[in-house]
Amino acid sequence: MITILIFILILSLLIVVHEFGHFIAARVNGVRVEQFSLGFGPLIFKIKIGDTEYKLNLIPLGGYVKMAGDSQLECQGKADEYFAKPPGKRFQIIFFGPLLNYILGFLFFWLIFFMGYPGLTAKVGGLIDGYGAKAAGLQVGDKVLAVDGAKVDSWEDLQQAIRERKIRSNVSLKVLRDNQEFKFNVPIKDKALNDQLGARRVLGIIGISPFDEIIEIKHGFWESAYLGFKKTTDLTAMTYSGLLRLISGKMSMRDSMTGPLGIFFITSQAAKLGLTALLHLIAVLSVSLAIFNLLPLPILDGGHLFLLGLEKVRKKALGVKAEEIINNLGLTFLITLALLVTYNDILRLYADKISKMAAK
Fold it and tell me: What domain range is 20 assigned to?
């Protein structure tokens, strides 16, 4: 029950932030907002404040902001209608939804780095035969303090420092052993491994495994801001790379996309790990939602932005019939995608249970 509540709260937060982006941009640009709705299905609650009716519905899987004159059929040419505004202002209204999701993701990453998160210490837990660390004289229990003079505080820092080294065949490690500091010149071997997206990458390996010791890693306020920004941009680059691999057929949809069922499963796992894991999940989902919404597909924000760009070039909007056809195609595509993703989630998460039930 608690997991369901957390799942609903996370989805609601992402949706409210997204729709608030559209809402505030519309108000700033002088567009009247008729409805601000969270969820679909049966109405739970509604209240009207000023020109806007705020609604809460039973099924928390979406939301919308209904603006005056937001279709060509409805638009009467009044100054406070969406289609009465020039393309530049309409662009702002559409873009601010995903922008606020993107900002939310960055802020949560910033908060995680500042408040602290669990990580493995930069201590050697094991040595692998045939690699440089063992040959150079490192021992189990040695704590790595610096790589090529750059301080490391965690296993993640250590891995990244070695992998991001300049093109060289060795790396200098400063190590703490029995309260004494030592320096080792460790040879590096390049090894081809699969990354998170299944792509082959050549990484530098020195042949050590981590010590089973967890520490809390914290950063300063502005350093956390920089790390939060870097995390956000890295996630963006990885997501677009994944999309390109999906389009090119190098990665399957089953391995790369998840829907509400998958998100619910991930939420249940994150809830067991505590607040930091939940904040990280919200940040990743928020950035991912922003990126997905900006794809140039009909009905999505990116599709609307694409049509606005086309309108700017043509000096006029598409006709009513063309707009209707595009919206219907977009809706069909999204429903089909939702069904496919849900089917994949069922196969990925519950295939074993289904097989056992079928075998009985």
Answer: 2-116+259-359
